[in-house]
Amino acid sequence: MAFTVWYNTRCPVCNAGISRQQRRLIEAVKAGTIAFRDINLEPEALTAHGATLDDIRRRLHATDDAGRLVVGANVAIETWRRTPGEGWLAKLFGNRATLPLTRFAYDRFADLLYAWNRRKGHW
Question: What's the CA gap between 119 and 2, in Å, rounded?
Fold first, then answer.
């Protein structure tokens, strides 16, 4: 099973960020070890995990190789860990000392981005 990132293509910022990651991870995508899926095409995809469409529009969600749900900053950290040349970002922002601050900053940015997208009528 691949690490599957669920994201909102209707958010221009999210879509640009994921498009960049897809280009950086082209070999992993081809090999099937990571996948990027548009939640707008499969809005019920993570309901078994208790995640709603709005939850996924607010924060990145993923399922790991074992099928477990990963949310928010942890998705970004795992994606960096798998991206050639970006492992240092995972180490910097995902270590025991910085992870609480990383999660806090990610959540505040995600809240602002979600509000902006709603105000702009992106969905």
Answer: 34
Q: pTM for this one?
A: 0.91
d(CA 1, CA 24): 20
Helix/strand/coil for 75: helix
For residue 22, give the amino acid letter.
Answer: Q
Q: What is the pLDDT of residues 24-43, one digit of tens each?
A: 999 888 888 899 999 999 99
Beta strands across the sheet bearing 3-7: 34-38, 3-7, 61-63, 69-71
19's tokens? 């498009």
Q: In angstroms, rounded to a whole number, what is the distance separating the alpha carbons of residues 66 and 2?
A: 8
